[in-house]
Specification:
Rossmann fold; eight-stranded mixed β-sheet
Length: 217
Amino acid sequence: MTRLTLSVGDRRVSGMYSQAAEPIATLVFAHGAGGDMHHRTMASISKALLGMGIATLRFNFPFKEDGRARVDSQAVSTSAVKAAVEFCIANYRGPLFLGGHSFGGRMASHAVIDHELDVDGMIFCSFPLHPRGKPSTARAGHLAAIRPPMLFLSGTRDALAEPELLGQTVRAAGAKLQWLETADHGYGVLKRTRRRQDDVFDEMAGYVRDFVVSVTS
């Protein structure tokens, strides 16, 4: 693991690069609103991806770097995503993917459009389609403008992505959707009723690897 610093305008934020043994791609992976780049969900996803040969670059948004609870504006958030992508392009070789968990994925989806980022594909973990208890597709109006291939990984119990609405949204955007059985927004699962025996993060990583291979082969 390599610790690094990114410049976001006149700010500097922390980052970390996790190198896979024989990387097939790198994923710039942005954290959600409730945690930072060290959050257990971020760490678990990154660890599982490394096992599939996918390196990750995680970073803090400025609000988390400062220890604040309120998220940054879209302009600041997308600038942080842009800085991480540009760092990867300058320092690492191979296919480059962009995404994030929850808020991080949503900001990544805006960043790729707002800053015309050159990435091979997008990977959204628990895309927050709407606030809890308020089903809507208002947050997804821009997705059709994204040109790189997109993969959505969503739990069947995610309260921020009503299944029918998310399915419609993904189909309209020409993207791919993989459901994670009994998983919630943070990928907690119901072990008694979950039919799959593997860890949910390993399941996710397998889907990501298949997507990466399909895009880059």
